[in-house]
Write a structure and sequence with these properties.
about 150 residues; alpha+beta; four-stranded antiparallel β-sheet; 5 helices; elongated
């Protein structure tokens, strides 16, 4: 990535599997939001991956923290109405848990490597550079981004 960006981890947990009428609407909202974000690149969503299980996780990459929060607060987009439905339907009942973590990432403050696999995660949304020469080790990759010597 040539500029700062944001990593957003978000998910839900089925606390009471038999309460399908509470967790199914929550589960259905995430694909709708992701489809909206993919159709609207100007919102700042760069891409990500989602895994489903008792605890779901979506790892998302955003152009900036501000783009993420602008999306979350916009009443004309899918997130804010979905959040309102969750609060009304589930509230503090405990049937469904939700969570998220947000990271602001500056240039040179991360490194990633992909070997014998197609681009994935950050490699799908950023520019891939061969891990050779000054990019051969994690310490060298981190130093190369910040201009430090390794």
């Amino acid at each position: 990535m040539d500029a700062p960006f944001c990593v957003f981890l978000i998910g839900m947990r089925f606390n009471r599997l038999w309460k399908i009428h509470h967790w199914l609407p929550v589960l259905r909202d995430m694909p709708r939001m992701l489809a909206e974000l993919k159709r609207r690149p100007e919102l700042g969503f760069l891409g990500g991956n989602t895994w489903f299980g008792r605890t779901t996780i979506s790892v998302q990459y955003w152009r900036s923290f501000e783009a993420l929060t602008d999306y979350a607060r916009n009443p004309n987009l899918k997130h804010l109405p979905a959040w309102g439905r969750f609060r009304k339907l589930v509230g503090n009942s405990g049937e469904v848990g939700i969570w998220h973590e947000t990271y602001r990432v500056s240039a040179g403050q991360y490194e990633s490597i992909y070997h014998n696999m197609p681009p994935f995660g950050l490699g799908e949304v950023g520019r891939l550079v061969p891990a050779t020469g000054r990019h051969e080790s994690a310490a060298q990759r981190m130093a190369a981004e910040t201009g430090e010597s390794s």
